[in-house]
Design a protein that fits this description.
about 170 residues; single chain; Aminopeptidase; 5-stranded mixed beta sheet; alpha+beta
Length: about 170
């Protein structure tokens, strides 16, 4: 993710988050520079001559991150002016003294017009691949309320863990 992707990401977030605060691009850039925060974006092309512009393409595009785990998966000669952000997800890394990092998967969301095509599954698979490989996570946790999202996570191998979460609002 680039700071300039934030307005499009911000438009998607109300679909999965109750938080309505908007951040400055400077703050977003600071978040993206943190080694424990990884933002993944999926794009499609508005240009019919681009390689992944087919309307029914299940893995609509490329997942990119804030640069911590390698280069973008977009083709080198790709015209970025034709990109439309259609999916987003976050992975937080938390150090653990007894194993690899704990990963926390958050805010996986796909634009309404692109749902039902396998994009959320493909995005999660990419994030899990990065967590398992270059990010060296020992596990990935998440919370889920949406039945459709729970179906995706279960299909990917996530299991219910009985725990009680507590929260302190600051």
């Amino acid at each position: 993710m680039r700071p300039t992707d934030y307005p499009a990401v911000r438009d998607l977030l109300p679909k999965v988050s109750r938080c309505r605060e908007e951040h400055s691009l400077e703050l977003v850039a600071a978040y993206l520079s943190l080694p424990t925060y990884h933002a993944f974006c999926c794009f499609t092309s508005t240009d019919p001559d681009q390689p992944f512009s087919a309307p029914a393409a299940p893995a609509v595009a490329a997942a990119t991150t804030n640069g911590h785990d390698g280069p973008s998966t977009l083709p080198a000669d790709f015209d970025e002016s034709s990109l439309e952000l259609v999916g987003y997800g976050e992975l937080y890394l938390m150090p653990h003294m007894g194993r690899g990092f704990d990963g926390r998967l958050e805010r996986v969301v796909v634009s309404e017009g692109f749902r039902g095509r396998g994009l959320a599954t493909a995005l999660c698979e990419h994030i899990i691949e990065q967590a398992r490989g270059p990010l060296a996570c020992g596990r990935v946790d998440l919370t889920v309320e949406n039945p459709a999202a729970k179906h995706i996570y279960t299909k990917l191998g996530f299991e219910d863990v009985q725990t009680k979460m507590m929260r302190l609002m600051l």
